[in-house]
Amino acid sequence: MAARTIFKKWKKFHGILYNHLTRSHSKGMTLTFLGTGVATGIVLYNVSSSKVIAAQTILNVSNFMAQPITSVDKLQKNPDDMKTKMELLILKIQADFCKQLESLEDDNSHFKVDRWARAEGGGGITCVLQNGTVFEKAGVNISVVSGLLPPGAIQQMRARGKQIDEGSLPFFAAGMVQFNGGLEVFKKWCDDYFYINHRGECRGVGGIFFDDLDIPSQNEAFLFVKSCAEAVIPSYIPLVKLHKNDGYGYAERQWQLLRRGRYVEFNLIYDRGTKFGLYTPGARYESILMSLPLNAKWEYMHEPNPNSEEAKLVEVLKNPKDWLNST
After folding, report:
1. For labeling, which of 20, 138, 148, 176 is most exposed (least CB within 10 Å)?
2. CA dist 299 to 169, 199, 254, 261, 296, Å?
3. What is one GO biological process annotated to this record (predicted)?
């Protein structure tokens, strides 16, 4: 799943939701989250039917941001199919999250909803809010696509140790650009994945990350993804409410823009979700690149002032800490 938001001020908890806050009134420090997001690791499995927990059979689609990608009739006829369960889950989480984010804005700031179809199979719903009072940019996207994985995507999965036969590979991917759920169990996986190799820096201070998760069973993996998705709103929204009116100055804003530059580097060079999308035939580039910030900055050989809060952050980014066991 996947979703990313770019906010007006940086207080972030990563690994699970990549957010870039600005213009509210905050000190531009970067945290990085535990429990905010459902994304970057796209949930992917072969097209095969699988019985799991029953999904609702009577759908009220008026609560979603747009009509489902799959026909309502097909969803209602296949309530136990994993593909149905995944699509309904991300539709609900997307709608709930967009409504919560919008509730923090003024009356003139709303999400632009763009439902799109993919000729090769499936489609998605892109929801973007820009230039708000609290959020400089916030995006919550979902995609439900199917077809044959291109060679580039198959090669990437093999490089991660997945045993995949030669030839084309049918796939179904239900994704949500947002952010992944919150547990210590995948903390090292998060540190290893969200790493800018050429900088020698992690993207954030911690969180969880998982990708291509297929154990212990498809059903249990789904329940885990569901619990992560449902952790986003109760873990993230209170942080925004608490800090959205904090004060900040020019120096904090410049630091925020520099950290956003690091996000751009990671997203375009290393992020597997971005690469998967760009490799997929019929990819919708506007949606794939939605998470990029409206503004970012690079300075030649920039170093934060010694003993500053920014310098302390960089030290942690270069030397990840085990927060649960540290004193």
Report:
1. 148
2. 43, 14, 10, 10, 10
3. protoporphyrinogen IX biosynthetic process
Spell out the alpha helix ranges (H) of the chain.
72-77, 82-103, 151-159, 187-193, 218-230, 232-243, 250-269, 272-279, 285-288, 309-318
Give the domain CATH number at 275.
Answer: 3.40.1500.10
Q: Rg of the Cα trace of the chain?
A: 19
**Residue 28 placed within a domain:** no
Read off the pLDDT of residues 92-119 as tens digits, 9 standing for 90 and up. 999 999 999 999 999 999 999 999 998 8
Q: Is residue 20 part of a domain?
A: no
Statement to judge: residues 91 and 208 lie in one domain: no
Looking at per-residue confidence, does 166 or 208 come out higher? 208
Q: How confident is the model over 203-222, as a mean pLDDT?
A: 85
Provide the residue range defining the domain that includes 225: 59-161+217-246
Co-location of 154 and 291 in the same domain: no
Residues 135 and 231 in one domain: yes
- Reported pTM: 0.75
208/222 same-domain check: no
Q: How many distinct helices (H) and strands (E) make up the chain?
A: 10, 9
Question: By the 8 A CB rule, do 257 and 204 touch?
Answer: no
Q: Is residue 298 part of a domain?
A: yes
Instruction: Say if CB 261 and CB 297 are below 8 A apart.
Output: yes
